[in-house]
């Protein structure tokens, strides 16, 4: 097992990529603390994860709550080996139709929340540990209406490299996993019905070279790799898990003759 006797903290671990990663970590021998805003979804996730997990309620934008959750996780486990700062929110912020509140909410959650999660965890992290941040292919795609989201994920990339330098003396690696379009609850607000989801998936799949959306478990496997000793010499890197969207943008089905 790749994470035997390891401990991990996963923010936004109550659904989607975070929950899939928590399941995989536990299957690989880790004990896992998950955080999330919603007590009901946390309890449901905990029921799936079993006795090697704990669930702590904390909003990523609430620094004090995040610090308390990290402290509680460290108290339960002794120390932490892995931090997966995964909590994030989408949000449309088109020029001419965006409010300051909406724009700042995305930034506070996606980048400020990630930084203060890492800062809170730093004293409890074992030397030689791993920090993984969740970026996004959207940081490079120039998708209209996504200025705040794209900025937050591009900011994570820049921040991760600074953190990699700062944590290097302790042998703690900092890397980013950047998913492309992935089948998770993040799409519920933009596609609230089965028909809307089907149409959205068809449209998105057309520009993905592999011709389909990713699965949360596929992202989780990359996070597992970065958290494990198999990635012991990977530091300050960003891995795109996007079916080729970033690396081969004209390989999608819609571009084929």
TrEMBL record:
Transmembrane segments: none annotated. InterPro entries: KR_dom (IPR057326), NAD(P)-bd_dom_sf (IPR036291), Sc_DH/Rdtase_CS (IPR020904), SDR_fam (IPR002347). Its EC number is 1.1.1.47. It holds the Pfam family adh_short_C2. One of its GO terms (molecular function) is glucose 1-dehydrogenase [NAD(P)+] activity. The keyword Oxidoreductase applies. The keyword tRNA-binding does not apply. Keywords: Oxidoreductase. CDD domains: SDR_c (cd05233). PANTHER family: 5-KETO-D-GLUCONATE 5-REDUCTASE, ALCOHOL DEHYDROGENASE, PUTATIVE (AFU_ORTHOLOGUE AFUA_3G03445)-RELATED. Belongs to the short-chain dehydrogenases/reductases (SDR) family. This is Glucose 1-dehydrogenase. It comes from Ferrovibrio terrae. The lineage of its organism: Bacteria, Pseudomonadati, Pseudomonadota, Alphaproteobacteria, Rhodospirillales.
């Amino acid at each position: 097992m790749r994470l035997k006797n390891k401990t991990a903290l996963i923010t936004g671990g109550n659904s989607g990529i975070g929950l899939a990663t928590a399941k995989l970590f536990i299957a690989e021998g880790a004990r896992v603390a998950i955080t999330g805003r919603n007590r009901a979804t946390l309890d449901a996730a905990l029921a799936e994860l079993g006795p090697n997990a704990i669930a702590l309620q904390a909003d990523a934008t609430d620094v004090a709550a995040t610090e308390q959750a990290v402290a509680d996780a460290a108290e339960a486990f002794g120390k932490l080996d892995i931090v997966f700062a995964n909590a994030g929110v989408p949000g449309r912020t088109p020029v001419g139709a965006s409010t300051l509140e909406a724009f700042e909410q995305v930034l506070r959650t996606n980048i400020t929340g990630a930084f203060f999660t890492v800062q809170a965890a730093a004293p409890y992290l074992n030397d030689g540990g791993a920090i993984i941040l969740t970026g996004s292919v959207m940081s490079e795609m120039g998708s209209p209406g996504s200025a705040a989201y794209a900025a937050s994920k591009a900011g994570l990339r820049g921040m991760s490299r600074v953190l990699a330098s700062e944590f290097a003396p302790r042998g703690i690696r900092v890397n980013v996993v950047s998913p492309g379009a992935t089948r998770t609850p993040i799409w519920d607000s933009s596609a609230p019905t089965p028909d809307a989801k089907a149409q959205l998936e068809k449209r998105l799949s057309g520009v993905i070279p592999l011709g389909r959306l990713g699965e949360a478990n596929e992202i989780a496997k990359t996070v597992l790799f970065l958290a494990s000793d198999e990635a012991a010499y990977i530091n300050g890197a960003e891995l795109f898990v996007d079916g080729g969207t970033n690396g081969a943008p004209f390989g999608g089905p819609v571009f084929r003759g």
